[in-house]
Specification:
single chain, alpha+beta, Alpha-Beta Plaits, DHBP synthase, Nucleotidyltransferase, domain 5, 5-stranded mixed β-sheet, 27 strands, about 30% helix, binds zinc ion
Length: about 675
């Protein structure tokens, strides 16, 4: 039998073992690069029962996409066994996303009688890290970042006992043999006598100091030190599953303000982690659908309506009726939140616009100016994964950021596709790779504005091509010639050219430029499993149009192959180009000018007009009249910005969508 899908790292082989031995069948099971491969032999009626029960009783977190079986002549196996994984063949098995701590592990974590009592890395075949520890396929411990932790006798017994919940749980660990936490603070404030590490069974290999940072506690002491620091208003960088978080007391306005200043993030909402659903209900209005999402094994951030007097500082999500909230999703977070028992801001460990930090030595560098201290651990993170963000629209979950808990699960393509690497656009970049009928979506990478972000983009592409061991036949990129992703695609072709002397090199990948809004339409078609033709209404901020102007309020009719632009917003001008994106007041003036001409510059009763000095207004009038540095656009995002500015909501913005979000929230309070 060949089984494909999300069948590795979910306890599938132990399940097969128990099922086969229970039915007195012999043979073997193994993981290969396609999924799971089984040979069973025995009584024919029992074999039929095995075939029926296997898909019906498979572990709940497994996802079977294909199941094929063939009848063979008996070999005469004496036992049923789990064989070593085979690494050969095309890599099409699904890599599981990271899974939030399961109920069984959580109970053990807080059970003083359990041998993993308060161990921050407890996990089993039903939960724990996956995507963020996998370095290669198939999913086996030597191919994960756990390979340097040798199982202690007790963990080894669990790992090899088919009746155990931790049978072949690749990240299996305990306080004796597994990863440990350590607490670092500035050398000059660390006290020598704080370094006692009572309760630590295995010394970590962490150095005493790293530059300005000094290890002042380990194990249980480290956890307590981090909690103490957060309680006192400090900013603590905590190494989690897919990267670092910056944690502060969400009730403390001064602490939140300091975080905003150091992170250079003046107003964009910050996410909050809360100990339990009960505590969360004090902050937000929770529907059963929202509770289901929060408690799912993806454990995303969910945007929920904020209660009045929610008990978190107003600066956490200023002027915003929503709050982004999540529950603890690793044992370390559970322990920390239980210790604190109040909501904490848990925002990505990065400077604004940079990707999340994953390595502690890099974190000391990059986050050293933001964090007051660090709670780190020595389980390496194979790749970054930010927290995913969802909200509910008409009771249905909609992903705003797809990363931890979801990536890299594929989207099903309508038919088998050639291997295409799609490198995405400039803002909120992700990449995608099609293999057969699967389209693997990368985790959220971010805006390709900074060098670290572009590095992360290149790393994710290299990582995907290596993990799935493929060379793309084509590279799809945005039509915009200046996007870094477009430039990368062009240079990738160039790189291939340089070693064309190698007779065995794969043929040159084809470059496929895609118009931004056509890509939106095609993505929407695949997402809804229809092939079209369809009429797509694409309301967007910015996208390079076929005529070289900035599109964004488009009606496109067609399918994934071809579209026709049947209608669009009436074009207007963006005085100052990029400056108009940061200053919606410029858009407001441009919109008015389209309708009423130069007289609008005297309309002092309008906030956006009033905000410009006499001389600035004259300059804007000249720019608009002569068309100097005033690119033409049909952008719906800019129209929202302009209207928000006209209403006096936001004359300037500090992050993309700020004005449009304010307009939406303002409108939601009124019936039309
Ligand atoms: Zn578990
Ligand atoms: Zn152990």
């Amino acid at each position: 039998m060949e089984i494909a899908g999300a069948v590795q790292g979910v306890g599938f082989r132990p399940f097969v073992y128990r099922l086969a031995t229970g039915l007195h069948l012999t043979g073997w099971v193994l993981n290969d690069t396609h999924g799971v491969f089984i040979e069973v032999e025995g009584d024919e009626a029992q074999l039929h029962r095995f075939l029926e029960r296997l898909p019906a009783e498979a572990p709940a977190i497994a996802r079977i996409t294909h199941l094929n079986h063939t009848w063979l002549a008996p070999v005469g196996y004496e036992h049923f066994e789990i064989r070593h994984s085979e690494a050969a063949g095309a890599r099409t098995t699904l890599i599981l996303p990271d899974l939030a701590t399961c109920a069984d592990c959580l109970a053990e974590l807080f059970d003083p009688a359990d041998r993993r009592y308060r161990y921050p890395f407890i996990n089993c075949t039903h939960c724990g890290p996956r995507f963020t520890i996998i370095e290669a396929l198939p999913y086996d411990r030597p191919n994960t970042t756990m390979r340097n932790f040798t199982l202690c006798p007790e963990c080894y017994r669990e790992y090899t006992d088919p009746g155990d919940r931790r049978f072949h749980a690749q990240p299996n660990a305990c306080a004796v043999c597994g990863p440990q936490v350590a607490f670092y603070e500035k050398s000059n404030c660390a006290l020598e006598n704080k370094s006692s590490s009572i309760g630590l069974s295995s010394p970590s290999d962490y150095p005493r100091t790293d530059g300005a940072w000094m290890r002042s506690a380990e194990g249980e002491d480290a956890l307590r030190a981090a909690a103490r620091a957060i309680r006192s208003g400090a900013i603590v960088a905590v190494k989690g599953l897919g990267g670092f978080h910056l944690l502060v007391d969400a009730r403390n306005p001064a602490a939140v303000q300091r975080l905003r200043e150091r992170k250079q993030r003046p107003t964009k909402p910050l996410a909050v982690m809360v100990r339990s659903l009960e505590q969360l209900a004090e902050l937000c209005e929770i529907t059963p659908a929202a509770a289901g999402l929060l408690q799912s094994q993806a454990a995303p951030i969910v945007l929920l309506p904020k209660r009045l007097n929610a008990g978190v500082a107003e600066t956490v999500a200023p002027d915003n009726p929503y709050l982004g909230v999540m529950l603890p999703y690793t044992p370390l977070h559970h322990l920390l939140l239980a210790e604190l028992n109040f909501p904490v801001v848990a925002t990505s460990g990065n400077l604004t616009d940079e990707p999340i930090c994953t390595d502690e030595w890099e974190a000391f560098e990059r986050l050293g100016a933001i964090a007051d201290c660090f709670l780190i651990h020595n389980r390496p993170i194979a790749r970054h994964a930010d927290d995913s963000v969802l909200w509910l629209v008409d009771g249905q979950p909609q992903l705003l950021r797809r990363a931890r808990g979801y990536a890299p699960m594929p989207v099903r393509a309508p038919q088998s596709l050639p291997t295409i690497l799609a490198v995405g656009a400039h803002l909120k970049n992700t990449v995608a790779l099609s293999i057969g009928e699967q389209i693997f979506l990368s985790q959220h990478i971010g805006d390709l504005e900074t060098t670290p972000a572009f590095d992360a983009f290149q790393r994710v592409i290299a990582d995907f091509l290596r993990l799935y061991a493929v060379q793309p036949a084509a590279i799809a990129h945005d039509l915009h010639p200046e996007y870094l992703s477009t430039k990368w695609a062009n240079s990738a072709i160039g790189l291939n050219n340089s070693d064309s002397s190698d007779a065995h090199s794969s043929p040159q990948p084809l470059l496929i430029p895609v118009q931004h809004h056509h890509a939106h339409l095609a993505a929407c078609l695949v997402d809804n499993a229809i092939s079209g033709p369809a009429l797509g209404l694409i309301w967007d901020g910015t996208g390079y149009g076929l005529d070289g102007t900035i599109w964004g309020g488009e009606c496109l009719l067609g399918d994934a192959a071809n579209v026709q632009r049947v209608a669009h917003l009436r074009p207007f001008r963006l005085p100052g180009g990029e400056a108009a994106v940061r200053e919606p007041r410029r858009v407001a003036l441009a919109l008015l000018w389209e309708l009423y001409g130069d007289e609008i510059f005297t309309w002092e009763w309008l906030a956006p007009v009033r905000s410009f000095a006499e001389q600035e207004r004259r300059l804007l009038a000249t720019m608009l009249a002569k068309g100097v540095n005033t690119p033409s656009t049909t952008s719906m995002g800019r129209l929202f910005d302009g209207v928000a500015a006209l209403l006096g909501l936001h004359l300037r913005v500090t992050f993309e969508g700020e004005a449009a979000v304010a307009l939406e929230h303002g409108a939601a309070r009124h019936e039309t």
